[in-house]
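User: Hi! Is it possible to get a structure for several chains at once, not just one? Here's what I have:
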Amino acid sequence: MQAIKRIVNKIETCDVLVAGGGTAGCFAAIKAAEKNRKVILVDKGHIGRSGCSPFAAGAINICYPDDDKDLWFREIVTRGEYLNDQEWVKIQLAEAYDRNMEIHKWGKAYGLKVLETDGDGNFIRRKGRGNIHTRTNVINALPMMDTLRRKSRDMGVKRVERVMLTHLVVQPERVIGAMGLHCRTGESYLFLAKAVVLSAGGCGFKSFFIGHRNLTGEAQYMAMRAGAHLRNLDQAMSNTTAREIDIHGLSLMVGLGGRFLNAQGEEFMLRYDPEVGSRARLTRVVVGMAKEVDAGRGPIYFDLTLVKSDDQKLLRHILPEGFRAFERLGINPFEQKVEWIPAFEGTLAHGGGIHMDTACASNIPGLYSAGDTSCTPEHGTWSITGLNLSFCFVSGARAGSHAADWAGKQDEVKLSRENEQNLRLNLEELTAPAKRHSGISPDALNYQLLEILVPYRVAYLRDEASLQGALEKIRALTEEKLPQIYAKSIHELVKAFEIRSMLAIAEAIVSSVHYRRESRGFVYRQDYPLTDNVDWLKWIMATMENDKLKVWAQDFPTPYLLPPREKYPIF
Amino acid sequence: MPVKDIDYDRCSGCLRCYRICPMDVFGVVSRQVYIAWQKDCMCCYLCEIECPEEAIYVDPQRSQPRPFPW
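Assistant: Yes, the chains can be modeled jointly so their relative placement is included. Here is the combined structure:
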């Protein structure tokens, strides 16, 4: 242990280490603290203003006790194209109400309004994207985050901010902590913990859409490197945004009358999903947009000119940043259509992540996951609006609780000689870019990676050639360019490590998409255009073994709703 | 152009923008905040929302070019 003190700047010990202080991480920390464990909550930024959670655009899915759970279950599983973990869907439906009422109550005690109410004090519920029988409640993102930050403080959680965790510390029988770097001071940190919860979001590649550019997948990457299984990376997701600026809240806007139009002014989504048109699930919207462009009917527009006056006010209230952005560009989106593009967002939200069971446990003992870092088992492909935010609450709470239980049964953590050697190697990897005098900047490499991932033939209208081509280019970047990345400040050094993480996750995503030889959810393959419930109702898994990516397909149980064992076209 | 201006006539030096920025865009020198890494700004407006003196202006244009899907 003495030797370690000469290698890293700071060493902290706890029962439960939570990586990432968004909605899932805060819930995990709070629940672990409720069980009297010593909890450290670490975030790359400021807890409560970091990651995706502060930009949750007002929609949250809550199944009320008197809602028809069977009907909701059926809707979520069928719209999730049967890829869901059905046990998880049951848990989500059973526990979301309690978690939401809990956070709302905590908020009330702080004078904050988390769930939005109408004039009579009832919670507002609407029909958002994908909802047929299910409903979406309205939630206020910043009061939600302020509530969670204060509650974690009041529960005695130790908060360590501006630290990027980079590597897990593992022993053969269990995980024993993680190491990282302070993003401003450059100090190295070692956290020794009996249990670790990874709830640090996914990897958005710093692409389009609002608010996720500090989410570059380090938690998923460190887990994969340690041999954790990841799942559903083939379902790497996209949202949509304006071409000129990043704006969120699409689900709410579509729910209140927003429509997608092609260059000819047609609401083209009615062709691809006659039942719900522009309210179709994202998986169909982004492919629909690409198909229209491919057929020469682009560009694509988003049209809010039919939104009613009261709803315009509601949108401005719930999404102030977006409408402020339009205003500053001199655009009134209620009077003119706006050019729109799909926004590739990788493993953010429901785009795949760490494989876990109903206790949020990964295949590495003591390693738990929650929220977007996990494989988001409740969604399947993508099912309904606001489900993921609610899942962050439920999975965060469960992960924290189970991690606390595990920690309670563990002996003290002791570093082995191998751990010390690995820490040295990890630090060398982390600091190497600072020791180069020239090379490629993180920003330049980021752009080159996006040039591979973002074009519509790689992201949406896929085939063997486009996927294989992308894979080769990603590997070339990793092998040839990554070793040349350089950094002349701690700020840039953080970004250099983010690039390392992004490249690994990019390869895992494209390999997973390539592995799936059918179309399902966000995977639309022009060479395999059918959804194949005969041979391909499987989870695509990924991990690293001896630094090499391994991808495979796995059967999974469908105990409550049997999928029709047939093949059918998506459109 | 992302976070563009800090109006130093309004800025009280509370440093809340520096404390909360998720992208570590701001720096501090002698109790004064300044825009250190403008290219990393993601136009999230959290700094503008947080500032009690309305001293920050964020321009919605992206701070770095991005390749488009088409």
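The first strand of chain A starts at residue 10 and ends at 19. The mean pLDDT of chain A is 95.

User: Great, thank you!
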